[in-house]
Design brief:
transferase activity; Glutathione S-transferase; 26% helix; Glutaredoxin
Length: 50
Amino acid sequence: MKLYYKPGACSLSPHIVANEHGLKAELIKVDLKDHVTEQGNNLYKVNPHG
């Protein structure tokens, strides 16, 4: 499972739930200003709505 997040946003909630249930999740930081992931991928390819 991949969890896309922005520090300080409510994306922390699914991360907490995943940890509590022992689910492994790949955390991917996003830059909402430039609409890219930390790897430089276009965020609109993951979510067309941004």
